[in-house]
Amino acid sequence: MSEIMNFLKLNAKIFRNAQVYLDRILKKYELSSGTFRYLFILEMNEGISQNKLSRAVGNDKAMSSRTVMKLMESGYIRKEEDKKDARGCNLYLTDKAREIIPKLHEELEAFENLITIDLTESEKSIVVNSLFKVFQNTQKAIEKGGVEIGE
Questions:
Q1: What's a Pfam family this protein contains (predicted)?
Q2: pLDDT per residue over 33-74, tens digit each?
Q3: By residue range, what is the domain housing residue 20?
Q4: Which neighbouring-strand residues pair with 77?
């Protein structure tokens, strides 16, 4: 198998394992690997619009709409009409969300420690920086519209 195929396969497996683990530990909060990020972004940006939240998370508007609805039903976020634009709504954390967010941070820190237990601080930094560069390059490739084989 080529190096790129190994890289892609390994990346996909890491992502899937992380999803499974996070889904297990977040279940007690009625959250999942796909929903907790919304709370963390709102924690730092209360009152943002759903569109801005969607862009920050990196999901399309339809997925974000479903997730926001689920978080509202679970009592974690609330919508308020935008005072500057009656067509828009702003999103806020509820007291229930504020109560669990420190616990979520603890759970994620424990997970990070678990998966990086054999890495030095320098190795962790190299991994994060390298993956960020790969991410930026994939973004550029998407924006460019792909490359023809042989170019």
A1: MarR
A2: 999 999 999 999 999 998 899 999 988 889 999 999 999 999
A3: 3-144
A4: 93
For residues 30 and 38, the answer to whether their CB atoms sit within 8 Å is no
- C-alpha–C-alpha distance, residues 14 and 12, integer Å: 6
Decide if 41 is inside a domain.
yes
> Is residue 149 assigned to a domain?
no
Q: Is residue 150 part of a domain?
A: no
Amino acid of residue 85: D
Rg (CA), the chain: 18
Q: Is residue 20 in some structural domain?
A: yes
Strands of the chain, DSSP E:
77-81, 89-93
CA distance 48 to 134: 29
Average pLDDT of span 96-108: 97
